[in-house]
């Protein structure tokens, strides 16, 4: 399937204009920064603070913004219009995802700087953030595809929040309970593991394990999002 950067850019510009006019959704950009100031007093060396900040922000910023962008197309009945344009499915998804990716990357960089967190390995931290943004963008796409309005899209992320944000808390509270050990392989828990690695004495294997698990989740959910998007377009 061919990719046209010009068509993807056109989708990006269109979504940027629509998103900037939606003040209700745009306010989610402030959530990570507010959390960063809230947890700043806890100290930059507290892994729990940065883990909660990032996992929550991925849902309330990345996932929510993407779900609303997709749902808005459905609410305005413009998915059929997108189908009839020369833009392919990949063009549309890249255009919409790029806006969310850029917003998430900038806001999370600012929030991380405010909190004062210093990762054990910068390249591993950046890789985990990039993969997580793509992962939660895919989750937001899936949520948006099953929503008919912006309100439904806002509510649809609640299950996503429970699935992808609750596991670190559950493993913290019930870490020794066997049934909760499976949650250790969720991307949010793996991100917390990565953030908990100390600045000294770590091995490459300790960095690669959580990254590979997050990568696997990213590939699977992105594939599911693309397939569902194509099928939902055919149903419109």
What are the SSEs and their pairings?
Elements lengths: L4 H17 L1 H4 L4 H9 L7 H29 L3 H6 L4 H27 L6 H24 L4 H24 L13 H10 L7 H32 L1
Helix pairs in contact: 1-6, 3-4, 3-6, 4-6, 4-7, 4-8, 4-9, 6-7, 7-8, 7-9, 7-10, 8-9, 9-10
Describe the structure.
This protein has helices at 5-21, 23-26, 31-39, 47-75, 79-84, 89-115, 122-145, 150-173, 187-196, 204-235. The protein is an all-alpha fold and 236 residues long. The protein has one domain (5-235). Helix 4 (47-75) runs antiparallel to helix 6. The two termini are 21 Å apart. The model has no long low-confidence stretch (mean pLDDT 81).
Number of strands: 0
Largest beta-sheet characterization: none
Q: N-to-C SSE series?
A: HHHHHHHHHH
Count of structural domains? 1
* Outline type: globular
Please give the radius of gyration in angstroms: 18 Å
Q: In summary, what is this structure?
A:
With 236 residues, the chain is an all-alpha fold. It is built from ten helices and no strands. The protein has one domain.
């Amino acid at each position: 399937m061919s990719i046209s950067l010009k068509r993807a850019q056109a989708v990006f510009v269109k979504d940027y204009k629509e998103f900037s006019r939606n003040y209700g959704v745009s306010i989610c950009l402030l959530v990570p920064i507010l959390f960063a100031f809230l947890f700043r007093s806890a100290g930059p060396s507290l892994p729990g603070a940065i883990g909660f900040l990032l996992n929550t922000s991925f849902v309330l910023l990345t996932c929510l913004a993407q779900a609303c962008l997709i749902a808005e197309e459905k609410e305005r009945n413009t998915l059929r219009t997108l189908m009839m344009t020369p833009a392919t499915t990949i063009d549309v998804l890249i255009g919409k995802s790029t806006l969310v990716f850029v917003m998430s990357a900038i806001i999370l960089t600012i929030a991380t700087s405010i909190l004062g967190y210093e990762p054990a390995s910068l390249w591993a931290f950046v890789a985990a953030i990039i993969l997580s943004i793509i992962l939660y963008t895919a989750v937001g796409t899936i949520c948006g595809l099953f929503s008919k309005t912006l309100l439904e899209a806002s509510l649809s992320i609640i299950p996503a929040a429970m699935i992808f944000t609750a596991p670190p808390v559950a493993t913290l509270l019930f870490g020794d309970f066997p049934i909760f050990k499976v949650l250790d392989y969720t991307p949010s828990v793996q991100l917390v593991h990565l953030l908990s690695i100390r600045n000294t004495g770590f091995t490459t294997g300790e960095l690669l394990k959580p990254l590979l698990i997050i990568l696997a989740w990213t590939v699977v959910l992105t594939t599911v999002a693309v397939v569902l998007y194509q099928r939902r377009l055919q149903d419109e």
